[in-house]
Amino acid sequence: MKELKLYVGNKNYSSWSMRPWLALKAAGVDFVDDVIPFDFDHGNPAIKAVSETGKVPLLVHGTFRLWESLAIIEYVAELFPDKPFWPTDRQDRALARAYSLEMVAGFRGIRNACPMNLRRPVKAMPITPDMAADIARIETIWHASVDRSGGPFLFGGFSAVDAMYAPVVNRFEAYALSAHPKTLAYITAVKSHPAWIAWAEAAAQESWIVPEDEA
Predict the structure, then answer these.
(1) The three-state (H, E, C) secondary structure of the chain, written as one string
(2) What mean pLDDT comes out for the span 175-181?
């Protein structure tokens, strides 16, 4: 099989890059990654050189190029149908995809106010009504899923839906958005996964600072 290459942005900040990277790493797929930092005032022209959208992540498989985090996850899951990308139960898979699509389409209250920043010291911030609504919905998803599956992840074992919510795990912790014991237990589980640890260790080595993401 041709090599899989995943172009990603700064590992400290790039939430959309983190999602497919974690999903592939956790599933045990071999791939190489290439970090293209976006520490430029108007973006890094090196991204546009490889990505027609001018954005990362971007997956390259031979001559085929694919963008959008969830599309990348689905493509690689089809390449490796025996890998544990999604829950094995049909209804669980459907729910996992629905929750993933909620992440793609929504939660802008948190995403706009609380940029992903793995280096950010934990510090609370004022919670707006939009943020409060997002927090309530995310906690409903997390708590109900873990209660149903038995945890420690949303559908038992780590799957693509946990990767889709991983940047929000950082936001919940870094901005002290919740002290609910079930939420904190899920955050601990995700942060203890080897794929998260590998990504976070790489992020800690980066020197780039993006001021607008230093909320």
Answers:
(1) CCCEEEEECCCCCCHHHHHHHHHHHHHCCCCEEEECCCCCCCCCHHHHHHCCCCCCCEEEECCEEEECHHHHHHHHHHHCCCCCCCCCCHHHHHHHHHHHHHHHHCCHHHHHHCCCCCCCCCCCCCCCHHHHHHHHHHHHHHHHHHHHHCCCECEEECCHHHHHHHHHHHHHHHCCCCCCHHHHHHHHHHHCCHHHHHHHHHHHCCCCCCHHHCC
(2) 98
